[in-house]
Amino acid sequence: MQTTLVMLVALALGLVVESAAALPRVGDGFGVDISIRPGFTGYGDGELELMAKAFKVLRVGIDWPVVEKDCGIYNFSLYDAIIHPLFEAGIRPYPILGYTNKCYDDSKYNCDSAKCIEAYAKFSEATAQHYKQYSGWNISFSCVNEPNNPTFGGASPKVNAEMAKGGGSAFLGMGFGY
């Protein structure tokens, strides 16, 4: 299913695809965003190879409640199955951290309580710690999606800034960034 989607995207971009080997690879700044559902066990047959021939960047959300189903306990196994193979395929992972978790806030879109903001910093730190082996590699993490949109990530720019500060500090402290 996802392989078909990647091929359709490539075709929509005007790339003629006779075979996966014929697919031209787009520049460093171009990639694709995929959605991963719980139960993901790996990429489909040939899927990584096709994506590696077409894209250099893959953006995927790291859903906070999937990683931290039980409050204070982190399990990255689903995302390991996504991220680790990308390096082997020569694709740069670009994970974006989810920013809500019912353990700390009942809101679907906002993490605006002090408890939630503090927990987000801990989640960011756990993520940075888990993926620190890649800190010198070509990987980027993102937090607070659409910080200018009060519907996502926080009720105000101040909340978004607090979340970004806590999340960013965790990654810079592990050697991510410059």
SS element count, helices: 6
Task: Name the helicity range.
Answer: 25-40%
Global morphology: globular
* Beta-strand percentage range: 5-15%
Q: What strand order characterises the main sheet?
A: 1-2-3
Search tags:
single chain, 178 residues, mainly alpha, 3-stranded parallel beta sheet, 6 helices, 3 strands, globular, disordered N terminus
Tell me what you see in this structure.
The protein has 178 residues and is mostly helical. The relative contact order is 0.12. The chain starts with a helix and ends in a 5-residue tail after the last helix. Helix 2 links the parallel strand 1 and strand 2 (57-62). The chain has helices spanning 2-12, 47-54, 64-67, 77-89, 114-130, 157-173, and strands at 31-34, 57-62, 92-97. Helix 1 packs parallel to helix 2 (47-54). The model is unreliable at 1-23 (pLDDT under 50). The protein has a 3-stranded parallel beta sheet with strand order 1-2-3.
Could you give the topology of this structure?
Elements: H1 2-12, E1 31-34, H2 47-54, E2 57-62, H3 64-67, H4 77-89, E3 92-97, H5 114-130, H6 157-173
Parallel strand pairs: 1-2, 2-3
Brief write-up:
The chain is mainly alpha-helical and 178 residues long. It contains 6 helices and 3 strands; from the N terminus they run H-E-H-E-H-H-E-H-H.
